[in-house]
Design brief:
It contains six helices and eleven strands. The chain is an alpha+beta fold. It has one domain: Sandwich (Protocatechuate 3,4-Dioxygenase, subunit A), CATH 2.60.130.10. The strands form three sheets. Strands 3, 4, 7, 10 and 11 form a five-stranded mixed sheet that branches. The radius of gyration is 18 Å and the shape is globular. The protein starts with 31 loop residues before the first helix and ends in a 22-residue tail after the last strand. InterPro entries: Intradiol_dOase_C, Intradiol_dOase_core, TAT_signal. This is Dioxygenase. Keywords: Dioxygenase, Oxidoreductase. One of its GO terms (molecular function) is oxidoreductase activity, acting on single donors with incorporation of molecular oxygen, incorporation of two atoms of oxygen.
Amino acid sequence: MTLPHDHDDDLHAHDLGFAHDLPMMVGRRRLLALMGGIGLVSLTGGAAAALECVALPWETAGPYPADGTNVKGGQVVNALTEDGVIRQDLRSSFGTLTPVAEGVRLDVELTIVDADGCTPLEGHAIYLWHCDAVGQYSLYDLTDANFLRGVGVADAEGKVRFTTIFPGCYDGRWPHMHFEIFESASAAVSGDGSLLTAQIAMAEADSAAVYVADPRYSNGTRNLGRISIATDGVFRDNSEAEIAQQTMALSGDPTSGYSGTVTIAVDLTAERSSGGMPAPPPGQPPRS
């Protein structure tokens, strides 16, 4: 679901915005033909293969992207122009900042493919960002940190790997990660519009296990109990196939950490959406 964009003249007063010149999306790829195909494929794995090519819908980038599309305190927030943003371990801050995010380790493998044929998008870049263990975002809630943000470049198989922490659950949102896909790393850091802006959902059972076991996720259990995928403001209007596609498959436990995989199928013909939102005023809780 792409939430309404709150326009602000300040958001357009610079030349690094990723999406200010993009038209609002007027539709989303329909999956009826694909779902019909799933019903016909072999039960020995064909359905799973078909699922890997469900094009993910555009979602809002939310108010904390730090990609040059919004401002905080009158200043453009853009982590993508900082030295060190292309990296694998997202737990530490980079550039001139030093704080390190604490939480349950999560090793992520993302596979970026063209939804038309499920072919790897080698050389494409992904910018991934998410909240910390208690739902705070670096550069906005935590102005002295830029952790849990970074860019990776897909290899010949379309794979990008990150080491990060399991994201927390803040009030009003299902546990999630944000991402933007770009044609290349240079496109990501130069302010080009993304090919896809979307979100990854975390599995309920694993999220619940982390929040119960680790005291660093002090508000996770309470907040998770107040929300569901069906009521989440971003995921609730997605189809079952889309939800399955964008939910991370996880293995592991809260003590030893987790490994997670997601196949991100990009519809390169989809109309682009400006999904950014202004940063909220001080004291207001995260919104997406």
